[in-house]
Amino acid sequence: MKTLTLLTTLFLTAHPLLAGSLQILAWDNEVAARNLTIGKGEKTLEVPYMHPSARTTPITIPEDTNGLRLVAPDRPGEDGKPLSIPLAIPAGTQNPLVILMPDRGTPFGLKPVIVEDAQSDFKWGTMRIFNITNKKLAFGFEKKGVKLSPGWKPVDIEPGGKSRNLEAFLFLADNLEKPFYTAVWEHRSDMRQLVFLVPSSNAALGPVECKFVTEVRLAEKPKP
Q1: Cα distances (Å, whole numbers) of residue 64 to 34, 40, 136
Q2: Whole-number Å distance between alpha carbons of 6 and 102
Q3: What are phi and psi of 131, to 5 degrees?
Q4: I need a surface site. Which of 34, 43, 121, 152 has the fewest CB within 10 A?
Q5: What residues contact residue 105 under an 8 Å CB cut-off, 6+ apart?
C-alpha cells in the first residue's frame, strides 16, 4: 500500500490572539523568505518572521480593512515602487489566517488565501482538512468517514474524548473499498491541526501528499 508523504509536521504553541489581528502562514520556505509588509493608505506594518510550519505572531490591523494590501518591497514595479496586491478579508471573519501560496506566473509571485482561524470556530482537539487537489477524496477513522471535496472549504474532524492515536485512511471517492493511504494520527484535546492534501510530487509514493501544521494550546497558569 502506498503511503502518503508527510511534508511538514511541527509542534508549536499558540500565540495569544489580539482583537483586530491576522496571522500569516507561508506555504513553503521560498515564500517564507520573502520580504513583505501590509499596507493601509500611507501606513505599512512589517510582516514578522514567517515559517511554513507555523503561523506568524498576530499582526494588528485596522478595524476597517477596506484597502488593506500586501506589499512586496523585494519586488519593485516598473515605476520603482513596491508591487502590491489586495488583501481582502471576507466579511465576518473573526481571526483571519492568510495562507501565502506561491504564484510564480504573476509579477508579485504570491497568492493569499484567507481562511477563518478563530478558536471558537476551529476548536482545540480538531483536525481541519483542506483538499487542494483536483480529486474527490474521502477520509476515514474509527469506523467513521467524511467526503473531502476539492477546494478551500475545509472539513473538520473532531474525534472527541481522551487523547489517543487514530488509524487514519484516505480513499479516492470512486474507490471506497481500498484506501491508498493508512497511518496513525495523534489526537489531543489541547492540539489543533491544519492538514493540507496536495497533489503528489512523486507518483510512486501515492497520488496525494500531506502538509501538517500543528498547534498546541499554552498550558494555563495555576490560580494563586
Answers
A1: 26, 10, 38
A2: 19
A3: -95, 95
A4: 43
A5: none
Specify whether the CB–CB gap between 131 and 150 falls below 8 A: yes
Could you tell me the mean pLDDT of each successive run of 10 residues in the chain, 224 residues long? Answer: 43 51 96 96 93 95 91 94 95 94 96 95 96 97 95 96 94 94 93 96 86 86 56
pLDDT score of 12: 52
User: Which pTM value belongs to this model?
Assistant: 0.87
A 10 A CB-CB count for 119 gives 15
Predicted pLDDT of residue 224: 58
CB 70 within 8 A of CB 110: yes
Closest CA to 208 of 178, 171, 174: 171
Q: Which helix (H) or strand (E) holds 30?
A: helix 29-32
C-alpha cell at 51: 515559517
For residue 62, what pLDDT is reported? 87
Cβ 206 vs Cβ 180: under 8 Å? yes
Q: What angle do CA 196, 66, 128 make, to 5 degrees?
A: 15
